[in-house]
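User: Teach me something about this protein's shape.
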Amino acid sequence: MNQTLTPKKEPLYVEIYVYLKEMILNKTYKEHDKLPSKRTLSQLLKVSPLTVDRSYQQLIMEGYAYAIEKSGYYVSKQVDMLVGAKTNYTLLEPKVAMKDSYTYEFKTNIVDTSIFPNATWAKLAREVLSENKHEMLNESNPKGMELLRYEIARFLEVYRGMTVDVEQIVVGSGTTSLISMIVELLGRNKTYAIEDPSYHKIFQLFSSNDVNLIPIPLDTLGMELKTLMQSDASVIHITPSHQFPTGIVMPIQRRAELLNWASTNNRFIIEDDYDSEFRFTGKPIPSLQSIDQNDCVIYMNTFTKTLAPSFRMSYMILPKKLLSSYEKISSYQSCTVPNFEQYIMYKFMHGRFFERHIFRMKKLYKQKIDVITETLSPYPHMEVLGLDVGLHSLLVVKGHKDEEGLIKHLESENIYIRGLHGYYVHKKHVNETTLILGYSGIPLNALKESLHALINSINVDIKKPI
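Assistant: First, the predicted structure itself:
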């Protein structure tokens, strides 16, 4: 060992510790060999015995050495770790195109943030930091902050005609956490059913929770009742107020049939009400939960459509008969939304800023709908369906049967859009190409240009030789 240590950025005791550890690892000092005494090392290295002691204490703490009183320090048992075969890994290219890779994007998972009340949100955030700094940092109820849950209950009563108890409301960080909780509540031994077609993420979420999952086809009214009744499903996930992606609004007859189905054999319906706030003609469609007489509907909603996708805050309304089961699992769970965000959202709703924001959003989206209607009206071979509700519509290209080919052509023209048939689990024959026209994230002043680019590219594909 060198008699002096070269000054480095690391403390001296760390240098000694590292040197001794390397000698142990390379078997210069073998198992149960006695290590140099503190006095010997301090004299040899010209350092304080306390410095040497700190080095030995670090070795002992990590298990490289042990001490015997009045005897000294010794090398601990040595266990050689197996070394596996070296594998060269390469990073995979992302499958999803990066942001701004398309000139025109008709996405369904983004919203218009141009009129988001940033100043109000910032003011409320400052208030929370000033007035609720202690509550913000402490643990909250697993269901979420009670004040926020009260505001959610009030909002649902006023705007969705739902009467719910605050204790039925559970706040979570997006659909992912809530579906996982539902599966834990209801059990993985049940068979779950989803709509076909449906949002890809829903299929992936249930699949990742290791449940038996079956897709049920749709008819013109929604989830096909006959196929459902022939299956062994006991839990279904549906979007009755605005089915994604078809846009079907489930009529009262089918709602009643599904509620009757769920009223027997301990069955449940998960009602995903993801964009019900945006209905542009007539009154909002009553939720399935509001007409449920048998306490079998689990209602889910999210703030990602009304505020922005980055607000990972959703909530669900549990049937009262599931509350005792929830209490059992809540003992080892905590709310997945930070208190800071919950307090801001509470103030945002309590001050009625939320309702005003939705009103402004609906006004802006209605302007966009008018632009879509006006721009596409001169093209009879293209029909837009479902503009009266939700934040996406269907664009049917009449007589066109190569949906996949058209989408590839549009991608080559720097246009992002997806086709209806791509959302099916059980692939169907394409009778007519149907595109999912997501318009919510396109700025109003850029919408007409985007639509014309889409129309022109579709027309070019239609005219190309077969």
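Now, about its shape. The chain has three domains: 12-75, 104-111+361-463, 118-351. The chain has a mean pLDDT of 90. If you'd like, I can walk through any region in more detail.
User: That's plenty for now, thanks!
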